[in-house]
């Protein structure tokens, strides 16, 4: 996919979108060269008509969590508020499926900064494993002077 510079005005955006749509249509359909201006005008008119719709007419419903946030933390898993699925760790799921960081997730759902991203029992098991491996301790090097 080609990258284009950020457009500064709305009219430039409409022109670019019209050009992209017409180019896609012409590349996949046989059309006489004399019909191209009419096609451009029709597509542009559709954008103008769509642009005249007042935003108050369209009511955007606020997304609701899949489960009550208070009931999303269990000892062995967490329930994702986006889709209601169970996970031991939410961080990777949030990034791969929703492009969200834990901070964004907490902010979106108005969760406390202490809201866990890892199930409590899973965190304890990983902590015990790390301690067993000797991680988290300072090395016992002899100081030489």
Automatic annotation (TrEMBL):
This is Transcriptional regulator. Pfam families: ROS_MUCR. Belongs to the ros/MucR family. GO terms for biological process: regulation of DNA-templated transcription. One of its GO terms (molecular function) is DNA binding. It comes from the Bacteria. Transmembrane segments: none annotated. InterPro entries: ROS/MUCR_sf, ROS_MUCR.
């Amino acid at each position: 996919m080609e990258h284009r510079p950020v457009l500064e005005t709305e009219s430039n955006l409409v022109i670019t979108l019209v050009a992209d749509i017409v180019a896609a249509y012409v590349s996949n359909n046989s059309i006489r060269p004399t019909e191209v201006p009419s096609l451009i005008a029709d597509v542009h008119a559709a954008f103008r008509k769509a642009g005249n719709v007042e935003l108050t007419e369209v009511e955007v419903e606020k997304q609701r969590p899949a489960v009550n946030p208070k009931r999303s933390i269990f000892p062995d898993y967490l329930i994702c508020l986006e889709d209601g699925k169970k996970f031991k760790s939410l961080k990777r799921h949030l990034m791969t499926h929703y492009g969200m960081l834990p901070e964004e997730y907490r902010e979106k759902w108005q969760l406390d900064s202490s809201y866990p991203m890892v199930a409590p029992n899973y965190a304890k098991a990983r902590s015990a494993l790390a301690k067993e491996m000797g991680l988290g301790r300072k090395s016992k090097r002899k100081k030489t002077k």
